[in-house]
Amino acid sequence: MIKKGLIAGVILLVVGLGFNWFAGLIFPPIAQEYKNPALFRPWDDPLMLAFFGYPFIVGLVLSYLWDKIKAKDPLEFAKFYFIIATIPGMFISYTSFQISLLMVLVWTASGFLQVYVAGFVFTKIK
Questions:
Q1: Cβ 34 vs Cβ 28: under 8 Å
Q2: Which of 22, 48, 96, 105 is most buried, taking the most CB atoms under 10 A from its CB?
Q3: HSE-up of residue 79 (Cα within 13 Å, Cβ side)
């Protein structure tokens, strides 16, 4: 479980950074929104290093969940997690933070994609 979670973490880091970079190219207002110091820490803040630990935490949690529910299909796994965690999380993010709907939609799509990718990784690693 730990091995799968850490491998998924590496892949989630790459997928997440790539997806968000691409989203910033397609939707320039998103890139500007990330630069708002009232909402987000600047990249030179030492605490931002913790940001890079997030995919590994998610990878380990998803690996545990994958094993616990005995999942087999990455798409069904992604839909399950999306309903349980992503929808409520994005709802509370939109209603409590001063972020755009576009940002929430990008985060929502990114979240679904990352869980799907993690599920795919878990099917390949025994």
A1: no
A2: 105
A3: 6
For 27: left if phi > 0, alpha if psi spans -120 to 50, otherwise beta; the answer is: beta
Degrees, nearest 5: CA angle 14-18-94: 105
- At position 65, the amino acid (one-letter code) is L
The residue type at 126: K
Q: How many domains does the chain have?
A: 1
Instruction: Output the six-digit token pair for 123.
Output: 């099917």
Which DSSP string do the residues of 57-86 spell out, in sequence order?
HHHHHHHHHHHHTT---HHHHHHHHIIIII
Could you read off the pLDDT of 79-105 as tens digits, one per residue? Answer: 999 999 999 999 999 999 999 999 999
d(CA 115, CA 111): 6
CB atoms within 10 A of CB 12: 25
